[in-house]
Amino acid sequence: MPLSDAFDDSDRHARSAPSSASATPPAPADGGEAASDPSSSAASAAGHVPEHPVVVITGASSGIGHAIALAFARRGACLVLASRSADTLAPVALACRKAGGHAIGVPTDVTDAAAVQSLADKALRHFGRIDVWVNGVGVGAIGRFDEVPVEAHRRVVESNLLGHLHGAHAVLPHFRERGAGRLVNLISVGGWVPAPYAAAYTASKFGLRGLSESLRAEVSDLPHVHICDVAPTFVDSPGLSHGANYTGRRIRPPLPMVDPHRVADAVVALSRALRPRAVTWMGMGALPGRVAHAVAPGTVARWMRCLSDWGLARARPEAESEGNLFSPSLGTAVEGGHRKRRAGTLGLVAALGVAGLAYGWWAGRRRP
Fold first, then answer.
1. What's the predicted TM-score (pTM) here?
2. Dihedrals φ, ψ of 183, to 5°?
3. Domain 3-9+44-366, what architecture?
4. What torsion do the CA atoms of 330, 335, 340, 341 make, to the nearest 10 degrees?
5. Choosing from 197, 201, 246, 359, which is the catalytic residue?
6. How far is CA 268 from CA 54, 104, 241, 303, in A?
7. How do residues 95-144 score in pLDDT, each as one tens digit?
8. I need a surface site. Which of 165, 205, 216, 310 has the fewest CB within 10 A?
9. Is 201 among the residues known to form the active site?
């Protein structure tokens, strides 16, 4: 289905959504151009995001992106939801409308810069403005670096780094023109602490962290334009089961894991804060992991390698898979179900993690 057709179909659903006092979008004018909203202009001038913001979310069809969409919908937001598949966007948009928001779906591959620009243009045509842009796409390929196909490495970097760059490039001119806006990048702790057997993922997250810091410097003369990063540890989303796996083993993420709805609430809070944080850390090991790696990077890297090898050695065999790298997954679930299935291992993994971080800190202090 052509992109424009899918968008127009979503438009019709959005226009037929029942209006209410709790969710009033800036409705499109007759010519397809959205009418201006005086209250939103006043809010922007004061540095506040409007009560019913217009929010663009990429990676919205499952996991954290889906949770973010629902969290904004419950506050009556006007949502432009993007992912590669129209089939998975449709039920998410419907759920958001039932939750009290106004939602349209725009099938978009974020590795295509022109498609991302078209996403921004259609959001502006439909709602007249963009208040918040959430770069929520995240994919991965797990395996020994030289055993993962180079095409898989490239796809991870294109999705996680260039996809976010394309989003920023599409929306920042609008933020500059209005003098206000929030760009939220989902980075993860992987942007500070490298993960063995996930080289492309780590490279993309380190690069994304640099992109955010550079953009923050560029817009520092615009007091109401904010670049915000959210950096959780492992999140209980379908991401790992959807990702590429070249290890030949079943991947089980370590506990404790972060509830994706908590991440979504943090993103909504950033959109409402008068002075939002540049970086929001989430998860028990997020900040300690960053500090330990900064103090003793070699020791922490070796410890993480040992933990990864230990986990893979205990894992059951599983066929290799390219996951959702080159074609979209069909699921729309928010949670991955790992916390419920593996609650009994929480104490052991948490103890190992804390012990490793403590040892890394101690070893770093002993270096000459």
1. 0.84
2. -110, 120
3. 3-Layer(aba) Sandwich (3.40)
4. 30
5. 201
6. 12, 19, 26, 35
7. 999 999 999 999 999 999 999 999 999 999 999 999 999 999 999 999 99
8. 310
9. yes
